[in-house]
Amino acid sequence: MIYTRGGDKGETSIIGKRVKKDDAFVEAYGTLDELNSLLGLAVSLSPSLKEVLENVQKHLYFISAELAGGDKKISELEVLEIEKLIDKYSEDLPTLKKFIIPGGSRVSSYIHVARTVCRRAERRAVAAETREEVLAYLNRLSDLLFVLARVENSGSEKFFE
């Protein structure tokens, strides 16, 4: 059965206890769920980014599970993995001299939205006082999403003049 009625009064179970649904941890993993869904949309529209984004989705599940009391944890290794991806995808991009206006292709637009949700997830993770590796991962992920949005626009970016 999908429904339990356990949350009907604004509470949920997390880390073995009942908490209000606006608890900092619930806010954090709820925002991660939103981010993961947006990335799923981007995956459905961009076969070229499928592998990268699906790997990120897996990591987001680990972080969400950790916030809910699970034992799978993001490490410095995953943060370094994101940094390598940023370096790889940035290689052929022109140096930025102006601010980019989010948009362009449909995929790029969705990735820009995902980037802003990622930044909110990071703020929520700070409020939940999560581990440093989680914060570093989310920080780098927003950078990666910015780069991937630029890659998807492949030279047709619009700049703030």
Concise account of the structure shown:
With about 160 residues, the chain is mostly helical. The protein has five helices and four strands.
CATH architecture tag: Up-down Bundle
Gap from first CA to last CA:
54 Å
Strand content: 5-15%
Low-pLDDT ranges: none
Query: What is the H/E string?
Result: EEHHHEHHE
Shape: elongated
The main sheet comes to: 2 strands, antiparallel
Query: How many strand elements?
Result: 4
The tally of structural domains comes to: 1
Mean pLDDT over the residues: 87
State Rg.
17 Å
Question: CATH superfamily, please?
Answer: Cobalamin adenosyltransferase-like
SS-based structural class? mainly alpha
**Strand arrangement in the largest pleated sheet:** 1-2
Helical segment count: 5
State the helical fraction: 55-70%
- The top level CATH class name: Mainly Alpha
Q: Which topology does CATH recognise?
A: Hypothetical Protein Ta1238, Chain: A
Layout of helices and strands:
Layout: E1 11-14, E2 17-20, H1 24-45, H2 50-67, H3 76-90, E3 100-101, H4 106-127, H5 132-153, E4 158-159
Antiparallel strand pairs: 1-2, 3-4
Helix pairs in contact: 1-2, 1-4, 3-5, 4-5
